[in-house]
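Appendix B, record 7
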Amino acid sequence: MSTSERFDCHYCKDSLLGKKYIMKEDTQYCTKCYENLFANCCEGCSSPIGCNCKDLSYKDRHWHEQCFKCAKCSLSLVEKAFAAKDDLLLCTECYAHDYSSKCTTCKKTVMPGSRKMEYKGNSWHETCFLCHRCQQPIGTKSFIPKDTGYFCVPCFEKQFAYQCCACKKAITTGGVTYQDKPWHRDCFLCIGCRKQLSGQRFTSRENYPYCLECFSNLYAKKCVGCTKPITSLAGAKYISFEERQWHSECFTCVQCAVSLVGRGFLTQRDNILCTDCGREK
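Structure tokens (predicted):
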């Protein structure tokens, strides 16, 4: 046979004519050389995975089909769900038994891949995490813990939350207490101008809350000098004489405008005069 007619293994040079061979990157190898050079080593039995065997791989590791088993119960994992723990492959049952959490409600294993709820180190099947009041699954909805139970928001509001005396809706966070009644902060308003009073100084009249400005405009005495309200709630000082009131800074001589605070004064009809201006009259 001429050299041009030869068809040899690229590695051992044995003739491949009439024999089984394998091509790799346009190069032919006999099966023995191919397995020695390129076959993956099985993680299970440590033998090469030959050309006649299926090569099952997971994260750059390889197994014979018959060696791809659960490390604990030896159940075949071929075409089945499995889980990895450290360097071991486990069937879902073995993994769940050894490593999965137990449902706080039913005490059964929460299987890998199943929907579950976790809160403060505890786990539940999604269908076992129920509202303590209505007994419906909470799922992905918001919930509120109370004592040893968990409540969906509507049930918590019905059973525990105060109701605002203004809007009659539940107060779930914060709130204001006035005359032993609960209010939302946004609902606690001045009865006059409707300005929010939470965190502000305010007063009341006939059990209604007022901001200082509205209370002064409605009920405070008016200064004879400037006609504006006089209110001690804001810390203002004032002078009172014969049922008339003045701001301290407004209590001045009507003629020369000198302050009369702490000084003698004279009256002329409705006018207040300093003693010097009064003598001139």
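Remarks on this record: The first helix runs from residue 31 to 38. The first strand starts at residue 21 and ends at 24.
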